[in-house]
Amino acid sequence: MGEWTGRRPFDDVLFAARAGDDRSFAEIWRWLHPPLVRWLRVVVAGDVEDIESEVWLSITRNLASFSGDERDFQGWAFTI
User: Fold this and answer.
1) Does the pLDDT value for residue 1 go beyond 80?
2) Angle formed by the axes of helices 70-79 and 22-43, nearest 10°
């Protein structure tokens, strides 16, 4: 899985995304989308795009309950 490479610290981006900042959420999406899709293509027998959409929907619904760093966030997202 990829290391956070954003210009701002992950914690700052996550805080802003939780507060409803679309740009921050998009930054998280751009970071996590490629490895998530690669992983789903390996473990899912079906429509990866539909399942990925469900994962992101769950992330947005539960973002406020997440606590941890970027590595924890990846693990959380990959278990949804």
Assistant:
1) no
2) 50
DSSP state for residue 8 in the 8-state scheme:
S
Structure tokens at 76: 């959380």
Q: What is the pTM of this model?
A: 0.87
DSSP reduced 3-state for 61: helix
Q: What backbone torsions phi and psi does residue 14 show, to the nearest 5 degrees?
A: -60, -45
**Coil, strand or helix at 47:** coil
Cα–Cα dist 12/59, whole Å: 17
* Sign of the alpha-carbon torsion through 45, 61, 26, 76: negative
* Length of the chain, in residues: 80
Interatomic CA distance for residues 46 and 51, integer angstroms = 8
